[in-house]
TrEMBL record:
InterPro entries: 6hp_glycosidase-like_sf, EDEM1/2/3, Glyco_hydro_47, Seven-hairpin_glycosidases. This is alpha-1,2-Mannosidase. Ca(2+) binds at residue 155. GO terms for molecular function: calcium ion binding; mannosyl-oligosaccharide 1,2-alpha-mannosidase activity. Its cofactor is Ca(2+). GO terms for cellular component: endoplasmic reticulum quality control compartment; membrane. Its EC number is 3.2.1.-. Keywords: Calcium, Endoplasmic reticulum, Glycoprotein, Glycosidase, Hydrolase, Metal-binding. It is found in: Endoplasmic reticulum. Its main location: endoplasmic reticulum. It comes from the Eukaryota. Pfam families: Glyco_hydro_47.
């Protein structure tokens, strides 16, 4: 930290949650860029290895236990930007999970992202977080999405109302006008958008696809800059 020297050259799968933290802090431009790095890794392996070495451009730790952090950041970025790009990313995630990890009894942890071998286990956070954030990403009419600024997800995906009575030592005003009780919403606020999933989501191609309709629906990050992140990971927009 003092001299800028590099201690290691790897990215941890848990770090994918940082883009979501940046969204909550209002640092949206940086959140979009942070997310793009992990999106490039997902494109390369159709999942995110537990540890990826950006210097050697290969995984250092090869397993993928169905972690939710990248999906959580994708969901929070969609809430913040309303860009259908993030729903399209969510569809890729669902397709990858169904293709590589789904079995009759559930979804299996990936032992090795290189050959997609599996383990006979499914972590509890897959249901409590991974599936939950994917569901909310597409269920725009869900009440949790109507007043998301008044709710906070815990690290395990539980929701808590942001109210003053839950703070032992209030340190200042919250993001919104706080009350000691939270009335569960029954109607959608007027400023939430059209309240429906983007109808173009199914057919929305990725940057680099032929006939790219993102030209009429601007990406949250330019194809040029997204391509730079893909190059760092040693993959391409066309993969």
């Amino acid at each position: 930290m003092r001299d800028g020297s590099i201690i290691n050259t790897w990215l941890d799968a848990l770090q994918a949650s940082f883009a979501g933290v940046q969204v909550l802090d209002g640092d949206l431009d940086e959140a979009i860029c942070s997310h793009a790095v992990y999106y490039a890794i997902w494109q390369k392996y159709e999942m995110i290895p537990e540890r990826f070495n950006w210097h050697s451009k290969t995984p250092d730790v090869n397993f993928y236990p169905l972690r939710p952090e990248f999906i959580e950041s994708t969901y929070l970025l969609f809430l913040a930007t309303k860009s259908p790009f993030y729903q399209r990313v969510g569809m890729q995630i669902v397709d990858s999970l169904n293709l590589h990890t789904r079995f009759g009894c559930g979804f299996a942890t990936v032992h090795n992202v290189m050959d997609k071998t599996l383990e006979d286990r499914m972590e509890s956070f897959f249901l409590s977080e991974t599936c939950k954030y994917l569901y909310l990403l597409f269920d725009v009419n869900n009440p949790l999405n109507w007043h998301y600024e008044k709710l906070l997800f815990s690290t395990e995906g539980h929701t808590f109302p942001i109210v003053r009575s839950l703070r032992r030592h209030p340190i200042g005003p919250a993001y919104h006008d706080e009350t000691d009780t939270l009335t569960w919403p029954t109607t959608k606020p007027q400023n939430f958008g059209n309240g429906t999933i983007y109808q173009s989501c199914n057919s929305l191609p990725l940057p680099g696809d032929e006939g790219n309709t993102f030209l009429t629906k601007p990406l949250p990050i330019s194809p040029f800059h997204l391509g730079q992140y893909f190059k760092v990971i040693d993959t391409s927009l066309d993969d």
